[in-house]
Amino acid sequence: MKNGEADVRTKGKILEEKAVFEIFDSVAEALETKGEETCLSLINRQNATDAKNAIRSKYATPKASKRALRADAMALLTGDEWASAAGNKEALESLIDSKVDELVAQLKSETSSDATTAEASDEDDED
Question: What is the model's pTM?
Fold first, then answer.
């Protein structure tokens, strides 16, 4: 067994204190150290968390960093759009922001469409 540590975040900020926890080399070692009741509780809690996360991922809007979205948006600009904003930083920023908005809308649309498709296929499975 060894110890692990992880940052602890609250409200988006990392606390100074780190969480320290055991990393077991085997189930037997965990049972010996924590006991059967605690191990079963930990397994059931993680199992429930995994099930909830699987459902959340079906409905989650994909997130991309601002930097990645801006890079994708710039790649979508046509030659004419680049030319129209040449030498005008504000115009270029406006074009990029517009493309970012289009990308975000597209991601949201694809996600809600996937969720609707999943719901429809779930309904078909009930027969």
Answer: 0.47
